[in-house]
Amino acid sequence: MINDKIMLLLCFILMPSQINRFLNKIQLIKIANHWYYLAICLYFIGLVIVLPHNSSMDTDYWYRWTDFALQKGIISAYRLVSDLNYLPVTIYYLMLIGKFITTFFGKLNDFMYIFKAFFLIFDFLTFLFLTKFLLQSNSKHKVLKLIFLMGNIALIYNSYFWGQVDAIYTLFLLISIYLAYQKKYFWSLILFQIALNFKLQSIMIFPLIAILNFDLLKDYKKILKIACFAVLLQIVLWFPFIVKGELGRITTIINDSNGYFERLSLNAFNFWYLILPENIVSLGSDRTNKFLWINAHYWGFAMFFSSCGILLWKTFTKLKNRKFTLGQVYLIAALLNLFFFFFNTEMHERYSHPAMIFMAAFFVLDGSFLLSGLISFTYFLSLNILLRFFTFQAQIPLLVNHKFIAWLYLFILIYAIFLLWKSQKILVIKPHPEKISFSKASHHA
Asked: What is the pTM of this model?
């Protein structure tokens, strides 16, 4: 068991270091030496040492999909496993983890908890990224903010306790937004493409990415370069399916992603829990429940697109001209995610994960402990009410009340909009006093 832990720790340490080396090479991110980073590294090493062995409702999916893909090949897995509804890039990563486990540990089924360590790598990289922001900020409370990040178990709950993969695409979105803000258009769009290949929900951030990359329209040569590289990358990612003539398997997953579960909500405590009885929301179809002859599915779309449209219409010019601070850009990204999560039907409880990370970035850069704390608390309640890893929640009736959690999400939405309006009043924007650079790091705590 000790040898197993050592092997897992070596992998956890080496894999992020290789990713960091790649990011340094292409001049995207440079992690400088600072005791903050040492604290983050020690924190995550400690998490791996005491990695929980519990299973979630998704563990069985990971096992069946990975085992079948390793035994029969990924094409056969998509042909024969009826509930495999994730895009290939995620399955490639699951197969990589599965191969590592079967090579160094033993039977896949006996070591499924190790998947969490590989998902946690992306939380670790997210923390390093947020810490980089913290070092570059003008905050007088950097140590307290670092303590908040490290003590906030909601930030790692998805990967560490639940064993899900939302941290992966969220990290790519986090970096993509930053790079777009810094006018590094090529890698911004490529990383967004990778995020989209992990989770189709990434599309909700595309309008923001598009606005931040708006100036790219002036350079047709660069557009052509990015388009060619993006097409080549997509061919590489889908190459096994293209060769075998099975590309239709992927397009089917993409087409079926809208309507795969025709339910008002899949444990996402959102708008629908506020206006309808709980039994209808949890069991009712979003296609048969109608208001004014329009079903709930399309009402959700209408509210989502309307709210996003109003927000982006009000902020378009300032976003394009970089007159919002980077923190406020992350706040706008969080609002887009919350609009997606709160108004749409067929939402899972985990789909507000990016908003929590974006609000943590806003907290680190511009400072709003209440907002970041509130969404972290609400997200924790949403996941723990199902996984029940921490039993104290069940002892407090209010904390397991689905409607109460929905009201919390509504308050967070309103408060986030208020903060955006209050800080810059949307119409009068003050530019950020400094441009964050990843080439130099401040060494002042």
From this structure: 0.89
